[in-house]
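seq:
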Amino acid sequence: NPSIRHNMKRALLQYATLTTLFLNSPSCTVSAFVPSLLPSSSLPLKSSVQMSTNEEEGGSMTASPQESSSDKQKSNQILMEIDDGKRDLPSWYYEEYQEERFDDLEEDDDPSAIDPETLGKWDETDLEGRLEYEFDPAKGDDDPNILNPKFEHVSTVPVDEEGVELMYDPIFGRSNPIDERTIINPQDSYVIDNETRDDAIVTPTFHEDDIEIQYNADVKAFRKSLRIVDTYVDPYLNMEVPRHKAKWYGYPEKVNYPNKPELENRFTKPEDKTDFTKLTVYQARKKAIELARAKNNEWLPKGKSVEFHNARTEIFKEKGLTVGSLQAGPVDDKVRDKIQSVLDILGSSAKLLEISQGTVFRFHYHGLIKNKRGMAAWTETLIRDCGVECTGVVFETGWRKRDPYYDGGDKWFGPY
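struct:
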């Protein structure tokens, strides 16, 4: 508590002042001021010290110094001079007591200093201003990350001999401090910049017709034409860092998706849309899974799913291939007769579509999707056991990618 410390300081000052007065007074001794520390034989005369005996407490003796009016007046005068700063004090005073003078602290003129009296007191003015990173372009705020067209920035990032960006790490990404936000032609000081300078208030360096003026202008223009990035060595990174860069403020974190109309980006008529409120929990979940897995659900236009699959198989038509489709191709009867035993084993689970280049066999597979790869590998082994060269077996299933009757008992399967 500052008030308690201040009172203690004043008490110590009074103690020091009175001690000095008694030591300098010829009619008083130290034993008169602190009689409990000295034997009774060294006590002063009764005229300067009053002695009293308390018989009830065992006859103990107490002594109290009697301060004269002149000494009291002198001590008050000393204390007033100390408070006003008019008295020259010894060096030990500044070492012992100067740190406790809280009431004599100089006022801080720093405008950014925190005033302890205002801590914890909030009002509406604290919400008026925003920090530099508190902006939202979606609400119409200006984007501070946009490069200022007034300055010229680095257009190409430095690369090494192999064309890879310098200091690029495949795990951590780009780490070169010289990037597209580095400024090549920074603004000069407002004293010499052409937009802000005022020759009327600045002492000219040269006379009006001095030839050095044009020469210096040519040197400055040539130096700027070199487009050299001004850098310095960072003491912590121990590498060259550009001195002028466009500050990156980042963007506000997206905490939720923007609100959109219910039928935006959809092509379903309002009277044909799915009303989930009339479905049970089980039906709503099944319908949601159906819409999520299908490629022709109610927010896609008619024929979009067919276009999607045709685009995936368009390359086969351009190259004249039947791979990826269920179209039949040429089949060599001699080879077919050799592998007839294999076709009998496969039965209705696979139908031969084409024998390409005499060694690649295409089948229309009707079995379970989960057994597709294993069946293809087994068929390849059976064909080789028949003495026929086989370099590959392709099982075609068209758009079928799932086994609807084995997916949790759900009989629905979408038009993939």
